[in-house]
Amino acid sequence: MAELRVLNKDKKSSTVKDSAALTTQLAAGLEKIGLAMKSRTWRREGRAGLGPLQRQVLMLLQSKPEQRARVSTVANELAVRLPTASEVIATLERKQLVRRRHDMSDRRVVVAQLTAKGNRACTPTSRMPDRLATATEALSEPEQVILLTSLVKMIRSLQEQGEISATRMCVSCQFFRPNQHDNAERPHHCDYLKAPFSDSSLRLNCQVYEPASTAQVNQTWASFIGSRTA
Ligand code: SF4
Fold first, then answer.
1. Residue 224 near ligand 1, beta carbon < 6 Å
2. pLDDT tens digit sequence for 174-184
3. Bridge partners for 173 per DSSP
4. For residue 49, what are the contacts with CB-CB under 8 A and spacing of at least 6?
5. pTM of the model
6. What pLDDT score was predicted for residue 175?
7. Measured from the CB, is residue 21 less than 6 Å from ligand 1?
8. Which of 6, 53, 142, 173 has its CA 20 to 30 A from that of 80?
9. By alpha-carbon position, which residue is closest to atom 6 of ligand 1?
10. Which ligand 1 atom is the nearest neighbour of the CA of 197?
11. Mean pLDDT score of the chain, rounded to an integer?
12. What is the DSSP string of 107-150?
């Protein structure tokens, strides 16, 4: 009996070590993808010749009323420093994808607005580097869905750690009703679209997103995650 207890204890310790090794490996893998996305080759080969942060700025502007936002808003929402946001916007202006103006209501404030060319660069086919699309296509459809829901969880964790600001995800949207339907294929409901939808249709950057209150987000998250941990 004593021996069994020792074996169980050792097994538990080994399981803990295995899971620590796995999280280390996953973090290393994600870092490698992050490094690859910063590589010059990758940036050059993006269809619009855009780096990841440049694309994020364009997509953020596209989601705003009149496709414009203060530079400080861009910095806040993308969780980057103000000089970094200013530099990226200046680069996008040189590429004629964005124009900068002083805010009419406060001349000290600089506003960035998407140009028609910038808007075209946000189309689904041009905003994602081919290599990233190819890499995700290497996964089976069930694997893609698992990756998508895993990304949702990781993004939320990074938000809670203060590493990234709120993104326009279903799980923090006031229209999201998780697990509302008795339908394993499409259990969730969007009150804006008035339609059920599946995990594979969860949005990470929805155009019609409206932020929910903190209380609603916490409640929604508990309901969304509850069925996965049961
Ligand atoms: S409006 Fe968009 S973000 Fe909100 S629940 Fe519907 S699909 Fe998701």
1. no
2. 999 999 999 98
3. 211
4. 43, 95
5. 0.70
6. 97
7. no
8. 173
9. 190
10. 7
11. 83
12. EEEEEEEE-HHHHHTTSHHHHS-HHHHHHHHTS-HHHHHHHHHH
Q: Are residues 148 and 118 in the same domain?
A: no
Residue at which a domain ends, from 91, 124, 157: 124
What per-residue confidence (pLDDT) applies to 43? 57
Residue having the nearest C-alpha atom to atom 1 of ligand 1: 209
CA angle 138, 144, 150 (to 5 degrees): 130
Query: For the chain, how many structural domains are there in total?
Result: 2
Q: Which atom of ligand 1 is nearest to the CA of 208?
A: 1
Phi, psi (deg, nearest 5) at residue 180: -90, -25
Please indicate, yes or no, whether residues 151 and 219 belong to a single structural domain of this protein. Answer: yes
The residue segments making up the domain with residue 68 are 44-124
Ligand 1 atom nearest 202 alpha carbon = 8
What would the pLDDT profile of 145-163 be if each residue is shown by its tens digit?
Answer: 999 999 999 988 988 887 7
Among the listed residues 114, 111, 130, 125, the one whose alpha carbon sits nearest the alpha carbon of residue 59:
114
Q: Residue 51 maps to which CATH number?
A: 1.10.10.10
Cα of 44 vs centre of ligand 1, distance in Å, is 33
The token pair that represents 78 in the structure block? 């993308």
Q: Ligand 1, from 208, 216, 217: best to mutate by most atoms within 8 Å of Cβ?
A: 208
